[in-house]
Amino acid sequence: MRRLLDVPAPAKLNLFLHITGRRADGYHLLQSIFMLVDWCDHLHFERRADGAISREDLTPGHLPTEDLSVRAARALQQATGCAHGVHIGLEKRLPAEAGMGGGSSDAATTLLALNRLWGLGLKRSQLAAIGLQLGADVPFFIGGRNAWVEGVGEQLTPVALSPTRFLVVKPPTGASTQRIFGSPELKRDTKTATIQGFAANDSREGAVIDLQKVLAFGHNDLQPVAQALCPDVGHCIRWLDSHGLQGRMTGSGTAVFAQLPQAVDLTDAPGDWMVRECGNMDAHPLLDWCTD
C-alpha cells in the first residue's frame, strides 16, 4: 500500500462545556459531551521512501508550515523510529478558531492513517498517548466514539446519542482561547453532574444519553467571556433565536450550534458567515483502522 486517499477528519461539537474547577497547575477541570459530526476535513497520504514529510494545501489558505497533521507525522516517526516518510494533501473544509477540533481531528486522522500506511500496528492506546502530546482533543478523535468528558479532557466514557440534525454557524472573527480561559470573569465553579443523570441506563460503557435532557440542562461556561471578546458570537445566537432555534457556543471557538428540528430558511444569514447543516455520527469513520 502506497496511498490512502480522501481520508476524513470529522469535527466535533461540545453539547455543553462546564468548568468545574481549576488545578494547582492552572489547568481547568471540565465536564462535556463531545459529539462527532459529519462536517469533515479530507486528507490524502502518499508514502515516501526518503523519510521526508511534506504537505500540500489542496484548498489554499493560511495554514502554518508545521500544522498539526505534519506535527503528528513527525511525532509518530519519532515514537516508532519509522524510516518511511509521507506526502500529505490536506483539503481544509473546517473553519479555524471554531471550537470544533479541526486541527486535532487532522492530527488524529494522520496518526490513524500512517499507522496503516507505514504498517506500524500500534494499538489505539499507543496512538492516543502520542496524540495527547499534540493536543488534549486528539485522543478523543482517536478513540472514535462520542464521549462524556471529564478531568482536563483526558477522561473519556463512550456514550450513544440518537441521530439528530444541527445547524452550525461560524462568523469570520475568532477569539483567543488563552484570553477566554485567563479571564477573571470566567465562571469556574459549575456544579458537577453525573453521566447517570442523563443516561437511559446505568452502564458506563456505551451509556445511552438523553440528548434533549442534555441540551435543556447544559450551557457553555466560556460563552459569556467569548461574547464580550467577540460580539459576533452574540450576533450568531440572536440570528438563530430569530429562527426559533436555541444556540450555544461549542468549545472555546466562535462557532455556534443549535438543534435543527425543522428546515430553516438560511437566505438572510450574513454573507461572510459559514452556515452548515450537520448530522451527528455514531462513530469515527476510521474506527476499525485500529485495534484496542
Entry keywords:
292 residues, alpha+beta, Ribosomal Protein S5, domain 2, 7-stranded mixed sheet, 4-stranded antiparallel sheet, 26% helix, globular
Q: Could you please describe the fold and organization of this structure?
A:
The chain has a single domain, classed as Ribosomal Protein S5, domain 2 (2-Layer Sandwich), CATH 3.30.230.10. 26% of the residues lie in helices and 28% in strands. The chain is built from 8 helices and 11 strands. The protein has helices spanning 68-80, 102-117, 124-132, 138-143, 177-182, 211-217, 223-229, 232-242, and strands at 3-22, 28-48, 53-57, 85-91, 147-150, 155-160, 165-170, 207-208, 248-249, 256-259, 274-279. Strand 3 (53-57), helix 1 and strand 4 (85-91) form a beta-alpha-beta unit. The protein is globular, with a radius of gyration of 19 Å. The protein starts with a strand and ends in a 13-residue tail after the last strand. The mean pLDDT is 92.
CATH topology: Ribosomal Protein S5, domain 2
Q: Please indicate the percent range of residues in DSSP E strands (runs of 2 or more).
A: 25-35%
Principal-axes shape call: globular
Structural category is: alpha+beta
Share of helix, binned = 25-40%
Provide a short characterization of the protein structure.
This protein is of the alpha+beta class and 292 residues long. Helices cover 26% and strands 28% of the residues. The chain has eight helices and eleven strands.
